[in-house]
Amino acid sequence: MSRRSRRTAAPSRLVGRSRHVRRPFLGVLGKLLRLGLTVALIGGAGWGVVQMRLWIGSSGCFGLRALEVYGHEIVRGREVLAASRLKAGDNIYAIDLDRVRRSIEALPWVRTAYLRRRPPDRLVVRITERRRVAWVDLGQIYGVDAEGVVLPGRPDDGESLAKLDLPVVSGLDCARDSLAIGASVPDSTLVSLLEWWTWLNDVDPDFSRNVSEIQPMGHDAVRLLLVGDGLEVRLPRERVEARIQTLKELMRRVYRECPEPAYIDMRFAGQAVVGSKERGRS
Prior knowledge:
Helix content: 40-55%
Largest sheet: 10 strands, mixed
CATH superfamily of the largest domain: Cell division protein FtsQ/DivIB
Distance between the termini: 134 Å
Low-confidence stretches: 1-22, 45-57
């Protein structure tokens, strides 16, 4: 290449470098413009969401017309409606579902309540009711569920005889004036006794149907009164299935050898004490 051609080539290389330096600035400017546009779009979308929520919350198109209640047998639909404190025309999207749920769960028979909206004009309430597992005698008869929550003592019109044929728990250490419908019985013994009763129902439901009364004997034993002749049975609470099986085998022998037994006490290791109504202990 000649000296003249070299001199003309140099400026072209310098110009190329100058253009290369300007490109990053334009790229940064473009990124800033895109970022600003994105922020504006997001801000506009957020504002639109807020406005949409405000419109939904105030629109008469979503006024409450019906409360759909499922899962209830004892609780009446009108009781659920009254507890919810809702009224026709309330906007379903403006309703505080947690507040309504807590109000419904305050009903004695309601264990849990689940709510959801069903647009355009309904709320769905799904209820799990408490189930009475026994009666308690505290100067007045009340029902209790497995958690020891006090339920109304008056049977409901829709309850079957099987649901009412339950043993009476007595001998609890709590006063009648300390009870409140829908609250737990203030005696920790009751819950453990009901747990034992649940185990008995699971392992031998036929035998459990012959129990008319249950009384605690300390923290580790229980006294049962059986239907018919009122035989008293004293059992440790541990090993429920084995104890009941031994008791049933023993009862056949007891009734054969002792026509009028008063009680069978199986709290002692390796032996059973039988008391007769006529002769006392044998």
